[in-house]
Amino acid sequence: MQLRPAELIINEDGSIYHLNLLPEDLATTIITVGDPDRVSQVSGHFDSVEVKKGKREFVTHTGHKNGKRISVISTGIGTDNIDIVLNELDALVNIDFKTRTLKKNHTSLKIVRIGTSGAIQNDIPVDSFLMSEYAMGFDGLLHFYEHENISHVQIEDAFIAYTSWDKNKARPYVLNYSKKLGDVFKNNRIRLGFTVTNTGFYGPQQRQLRLKPSQMELMEKLSSFSYEGLSLTNLEMETSGIYALSQLLGHEAVSMNCILANRSTGEFSTNPAKSVDELIKFCLERLA
């Protein structure tokens, strides 16, 4: 089947619509970051950089570290952007742009999110590192795609019952990381966690400035929920979307979180830039 121009949008130079990348610009090992400025922070640790491209909030650098070719790309904030980035990354390796047809041989990407996050358990220290073994999505992205038997329905049902989840909101979904890729990062510095992906930073995460969140009790229920020993550990805004689309598209994905805040204790990192850079260096050492 040939994909129509309105489905697969290609720029005049042959690059994919939003990311502005050509297929040859992309490595098969990819680091995603939210902040465009963090791309150069990551690539600053490369031995060499061969590609620097950007469009809107999507900035990409591709280079080499210890002989390993790696791309780092900024996604911006939220799973709406993740929907764009993951689909276009997949298109770059699994669709022939000249014929607009799917390639016969599937290429699987290794996708590592390096991001910041807030803990909701008081025993998780600020400036520590957490790898999302599981992710619970409040964003609903998974429900826009055909999917079957990839989410943990029993955990979802238990959470919905425990929190008296509003049926007018998207059903929370639970997915797990790629264990194969996760094993690359296992270390006594890394805590395994169960990450909640929210649709926003303020009301959805029960922060109150001038607007009062509709479910002020939700934070307490998040921190006290447990299912067969699994407790929710931290909040952020991209992981569930990355896990959902990676599983559907046949890619390996893992989310690495630098804990900058603890919502339970009220603490915030005194040197967030240093902590994030330490996580970047750790991940690059393991990947390369």
TrEMBL record:
<dbReference type="Pfam" id="PF01048">
    <property type="entry name" value="PNP_UDP_1"/>
</dbReference>
<dbReference type="GO" id="GO:0006152">
    <property type="term" value="P:purine nucleoside catabolic process"/>
</dbReference>
<dbReference type="GO" id="GO:0005829">
    <property type="term" value="C:cytosol"/>
</dbReference>
<feature type="domain" description="Nucleoside phosphorylase">
    <location>
        <begin position="29"/>
        <end position="263"/>
    </location>
</feature>
<protein>
    <recommendedName>
        <fullName>Uridine phosphorylase</fullName>
        <ecNumber>2.4.2.3</ecNumber>
    </recommendedName>
</protein>
<dbReference type="GO" id="GO:0004731">
    <property type="term" value="F:purine-nucleoside phosphorylase activity"/>
</dbReference>
<dbReference type="InterPro" id="IPR000845">
    <property type="entry name" value="Nucleoside_phosphorylase_d"/>
</dbReference>
<dbReference type="GO" id="GO:0004850">
    <property type="term" value="F:uridine phosphorylase activity"/>
</dbReference>
<dbReference type="InterPro" id="IPR035994">
    <property type="entry name" value="Nucleoside_phosphorylase_sf"/>
</dbReference>
